[in-house]
Design goal:
The chain is elongated. The N and C termini lie far apart (47 Å). Helices cover 70% and strands 0% of the residues. The longest helix is centred in the middle third of the chain and has 21 residues. The protein has two helices and no strands.
């Protein structure tokens, strides 16, 4: 069990959590793209 009374969230940890959250949002946005736009992005990424 995690002891939350001794858990310290440092600015570095908070920054990492924020970056993960931002990445997840960007990943979800890619899933909502039209299939032709997604195919175009895949083509560019493989070049």
């Amino acid at each position: 069990m995690l002891k939350t009374d001794t858990l310290q969230i440092t600015p570095e940890i908070l920054n990492l959590i924020a970056r993960i959250d931002e990445f997840k949002g960007a990943w979800r946005a890619l899933g909502r793209l039209a299939p032709d736009r997604l195919a175009s992005l895949r083509h560019v990424a493989t070049i």
